[in-house]
Amino acid sequence: MAGIPTDERLLAHIFRKYERAFADWSDENKTRATKIWVPIDIEAVAKHYRCDPDLIFGRLYYHMNHRYASNTGDGDKVNFFNMRLGPDRHCVNFPLLASVLADLQEDKKRFQVSTRMAALSLVVSAVSILIAIFWKGGAVMLP
Predict the structure, then answer these.
(1) Per-residue model confidence (pLDDT) at position 143
(2) Which range marks the domain in which residue 29 is found?
(3) pLDDT number for residue 74
(4) Would strands 77-78 and 70-71 be described as parallel, antiparallel, or unpaired?
(5) Residue 2 domain flag
(6) Burial (Cβ within 10 Å: 0-12, 13-18, ≥19) of residue 76
(7) Which of 57, 65, 109, 140 could serve as a FRET partner for 4 with CA atoms 20 to 30 Å apart?
């Protein structure tokens, strides 16, 4: 069994896989109960990551729903994941998923840029130290 994916990888996969289904909904083409709630196939997602479907379900229902759900100004709760909406099972709030994914991808990019800058700074510092040790007054000092 492969490890469970990060939130960013899991949400990116769900977004790519169900983006068309979200966009194709219309009043004339009602393929699910509502536009924003998109049912997902947890078993297919788990198969993609070669892990147990209960791990994916638990990640969405217990972890992400708690972490990414919010409250409106009226005191209503906006869930990230719902077990059932009408005839649909295992539904994600697709606009909220897209927003969370965008934030996670931005955080990942910011982390990668910071890490690369730190690595570059380390290389520049090491080169500076080597130059200071071995380069005296225009002449190379060899040990």
Answers:
(1) 58
(2) 7-140
(3) 79
(4) antiparallel
(5) no
(6) exposed
(7) 109
pLDDT digit string (tens) for 11-53? 999 999 999 999 988 878 778 888 999 999 999 999 999 999 9
DSSP string, 62-103: IIIHHHH-EE-TTS-EE-SEEEEETTEEEEEEHHHHHHHHHH
Reduced to 3 states (helix: H, G, I; strand: E, B; else coil), residue 43 is: helix
Q: What is the rounded distance in angstroms from the CA atom of residue 126 to the CA atom of residue 58? A: 46
Q: Is residue 1 part of a domain?
A: no
Rounded to whole angstroms, the Cα distance separating 105 from 111 reads 10
- What's the structural domain count of the chain? 1
3-class DSSP assignment, residue 135? strand
The answer to whether residue 70 is domain-embedded is: yes
Let me know if residue 47 belongs to a domain.
Answer: yes
